[in-house]
Amino acid sequence: MKRALLTLTLVGLLGSGCGSTATAPTTATPTAPTTEIFTGSLSVQGTAFYSFGVSESGAVGITLVGLTSGTNALSTVVLLGYGIPSGTGCGLSISTRTAPALAAQIRNVLPQGIYCVSVADVGNLADSVNFTVRIVHP
Amino acid sequence: VTQNEECSQLSKEATSPSTTLDVGPVAIETFAGSVALSGSAFYSFSSARDGTLSLTLLKLDDADGPSSASMLLSIGYPSGTGCTIDTSTSAPVGTTAQLSNTYAAGVYCAKITDTGNLASPATFVINIVHPR
User: Considering only alpha carbons, which residue of chain B is nearest residue A20?
Assistant: First the structure.
């Protein structure tokens, strides 16, 4: 009898919210990362940028995958960076001078928001080249 | 106080209309550039707080001088190599904001587009006002 009263009391207490029914805890499911490919042409002393949105805080990887001139793959060093779109360009927070590679040259954990990736010639280009940058983000 | 009264009071508190006063410091950024025939240009900016973003097309000059052509003015989000439009309006040069809307804090872009009204490439000046 005591147990039945206790049960009724608990049910009464638990059920006394203001009409709320969704009390079960939920588990956040991490979303699969998104991959964006930024391709373009980089002129001598030029800069190109690309904006992307990070939907939730998480790891972002940026990879300068390739630089090509015609059918030739190049190992030229350029400036690769990321930041926040600002004015008519990309306000860089982090940058590195790098040649193309298979592994991400820049990795960082970023909060939700809008960011940009920038590729720039630092004086090593003799002619315009085509580039490919892979951006992986939440 | 009974539970129903308490819930009723909570409900009233939760649904009472709120007044958002858009006060506080604002930043004014000047976006100046050129736009080709049927072309567009955009400019990114960060708004530090929730509040009103407004664009004023102050000046538009084509090959013949000051132009009265209507241009598409837009507010949107930087995306890829461009600016994805959220709100826009078509308007000629003026001294008061042609486009104004409230937004949460974040990164946005202002965009100007010729929708076929320009007779020749033009230079422009747009004032962007946003919370800072």
Answer: B7
